[in-house]
Amino acid sequence: MATQSESSGFTRATMGPVAGLMFLVGSAITVAAIIFPHSPKAEIAGFWAIAAGAAVVAAVLLCLHNRLPAWVYRGVMVLGTLTISLTLYFNGERHGGPAADNEVLYVWIALYSGYFFTRAQVAVQLAIVAAAYAVTLLAVHPGQIGFTRWFITIGMVALAGSLVHVLRRRNDQLLARLFEAVRTDLLTGLVNRQGFDERFEIELERGRRTAQPVALVLADIDGFKELNDRFGHPAGDLALTAVGRLARNAVRGIDTMARIGGDEFAAILPATGADGAYALAERLRDGVPHLRNGYGEPLTMSFGIVEFPLHGDTREALVRAADRALYQAKGLGRNRSVVHLQELDDAALRSVAVS
Questions:
Q1: Is the pTM value of this prediction over 0.90?
Q2: What is the arithmetic mean of pLDDT over 170-187?
Q3: Contact assessment for residue 220 and residue 157, using Cβ atoms and an 8 Å cutoff
Q4: Distance between CA 202 and CA 139 in Å, rounded?
Q5: Structural contact between residues 140 and 87, judged by C-beta atoms closer than 8 angstroms
Q6: CB 216 within 8 A of CB 338
Q7: pLDDT tens across 214-262, in order?
Q8: 32-62, pLDDT tens digit by residue?
Q9: Burial 43-68 (b: 16+ CB within 10 A, else e)
């Protein structure tokens, strides 16, 4: 689920440019503060150093953001907090000049952290802001109103960061639910064809990296067309729902059970060979007769089984091989499980069926 923002590719690609833009704007604001009328007590050399440093950080973030891991940006926000604190320190208030209200820039840190970081990381960033601002105020000597300034500023910063974080999490949860909804078959609650294709590619890629097998089981309900023709689609829907419930309860948490069209179902079994997939198919086949069709008779199903990379190394090749095995199961009289055998051609299949 996409609530951990740093796990998202979109977020990782966005964190750097946004942080870089923040530092670039901060550098421009600092230069503007030097050029435009300012307190005579302000330490201009310090401001120039801040502007130059912020510009360098901005350039690094904008140019190298694709190479930087997400954790770097937590350090970047700490650097941003220290930069803002330095602008407060150099604004001349500690030499008797007026306060410049630069502390409002801490809100930038809170907004960025609230949007991109986890809850614990947001809390750490807010704590760093609170500590840095407290130390800066002690160095500036704001007098009796120092605590009031600190309390109001940190309250505002904490509220801004928390609100953005809550809104981002809720948005992520909504997007995750929508993502799952468009990949879920409404009738059975199983993964639909789109979700099946996506997850199968993911598991095959994992199998290639880990050199582990991945099994695919294709299945359909025997005589489903006759069932629909005789009793109508509501009876067929009841059969599909019952089979979907049985299938969903039969697989492991790491497996994917899908309805990929009509009365056709598919199971993706990571780290499982053909033998393990055959055992699952047989458990399902044994459980299906306990279900009933529209006129009270037991349902039956046929299963075709293949294994990656034994029977193919692409999704398309494996689906074709599994469909071939399912066809073999139908030709052998239905209500059975068949592991794909390339050498079992149509002639041999017909001779076995006759015998």
A1: no
A2: 85
A3: no
A4: 55
A5: no
A6: no
A7: 999 999 999 898 888 888 888 888 899 999 999 999 899 999 999 998 8
A8: 999 998 889 999 999 999 999 999 999 999 9
A9: beebbeebbebbbebbebbeeebeeb
